[in-house]
Sequence to fold (475 residues):
Amino acid sequence: MSKQFDVVVIGGGPGGYIAAIRAAQLGFNTACIDEWKNAKNGPAPGGTCTNVGCIPSKALLQSSEHYEHAGHAFADHGIEVKGLGLNLGQMLARKESIIKQNNEGILYLFKKNKVTFFHGRGSFVKGDANGYEIKVAGATEETITGKHIVLATGSNARELPGAPFDEKLILSNTGALAIDSVPAKLGVIGAGVIGLEMGSVWRRLGSEVTVLEALPAFLGAVDEQIAKEAGKLFAKQGLKISLGVKIGAVTAGKKDVTVEYVDATGAAQKAVFDKLIVSIGRTPNTIGLNAEGVGLQLDERGFIAVDGDCKTNLPNVWAVGDVVRGPMLAHKAEEEGVAVAERIAGQHGHVNFNTIPWVIYTSPEIAWVGQTEQQLKAAGIAYKAGSFPFLANGRARALGDTSGMVKFLADAKTDEILGVHIVGPMASELISEAVVAMEFRASAEDIARICHAHPSLSEATKEAALAVDKRSLNF
Fold:
C-alpha cells in the first residue's frame, strides 16, 4: 500500500518547499518531491533559484563587485592593492559552497517541520477528488498518495530556435554561472534581468561584453526615467548594449560562436564571441508530469491553468510559482505557496500582485514596485512625481556610490503611493519600505513625515517623498 499524505508538493523550489513547510505547520501530513541533484547525485532542493539562479548569481555578483572595487575603487579610500589577481576557481567554489548551505538548510527545515522528503521526479498516475496517486522516480521507484497536490515544478530557460544550449559555448543561466575561465569576448542575447546580471559579472572580471536586445527600448518594463539613467551608467561601465536587434543565424564552432543579426538601422552585422549567454525568457516546466494522463489543463502558452486562488481544473490540485501565470519571481512563488497551504486549511491566503517588488542586482541595483510613469500616463491616471538623487545623500557619498535616484509616483488627488522606483546602491533593500507603505495604502506624505536615520541611504526615500510635494530639504 502506498504512503498516504494530506498534502503532496511536487517541486522543491521557493514555491514548493515553502508550501510544504507551511502546510506542515498547519497540521497536515505533508510530503515534498524534488529531483534536483548535487555533484554527488544527492538531493539538492531549492530549485532553479538555489541551484542555478538567484543564490549563485548573487554570490558571483558580490565576488565580482569586490574584485572590481579592489582594482578601481579602493584607492579612493586610501587602500592600496598591489599584485591583484583573480582566482576564478576559488570564486566558483565559494558559490558552490553557498548553494550547498542553502540545499542543506532546506533539508533541515523539512526535518524540523516534519515534512517527508522524496528525492526524485514526481508525476501523476491517476486520481480524483478522493486522492491522487503520485509516482516518485528516483534511485528507486515508489508510489505515494495525496489528498491535495501542489504543483511547483518551476521553469526552464528558453532556447533560441536552431541554437540549443550545450552549456559550453551557448549558455543558459546554468552555464553562465559555471564558466571556468574569463572569456575575452562574451555575447549576451537578451537585456533582461539574467542577461544584465550575468553580463555584469563577467564584465567586472575582464570580459568585453556585448548585449543584443530585440526590443527598441532598454528595460521596457522599468520606469522610463529610471531605465534611461541605468542605461547611461551601464554604458559608462563599458557594457555594450545594442537595442532593436533581429537575431539571425547562431553558429557554434569548435572554440567560438558566431551571431549574425540585423541592427536597429537595418544593417547586417556579424559578431564572434568566445561564449554566448542566451537569456530570452523562461518556459513553464511540465515535462514528465503526466498532465495529459489526468486531464490537467494547460493554457495556450504551456502554463498550468489556474484561477485567482491557484486552483487548477482538477479538484484539490493546486499550482504555484513559475509554472503558472504572473511574474517568474522566487518571492512571488513563496507567497503563493503560503497562500495555497492556508487555503487548503480553510483560511484566506492572499497574494497582492500589485505590491510584488522587482529587483535587478546589477551595480547600481534597480528595484521597483507598483506602476511606472508610462503606465499611469497610458491609463489616464493623474499623478504627481518626486525624485531625489543619491548624489545629494550623505551616506551614499561616504560609501563612494552616488549613482542613481529614488522616484515616487503618487495619486494627484489622494496622494496615495502608486509606484516607487530606485536605481542606486542597495535598491533591493530600500524597496521594502515602499512595499510596506503601498500594502497599507500609505500616502507620499506619510513617508515624508516618518523619521529616517541619519546618515542612511533610506533618507533618499524620505526626500523623494518630500519632492512629490516639491519640498525636498537636501536637494
Summary: The mean pLDDT is 97.
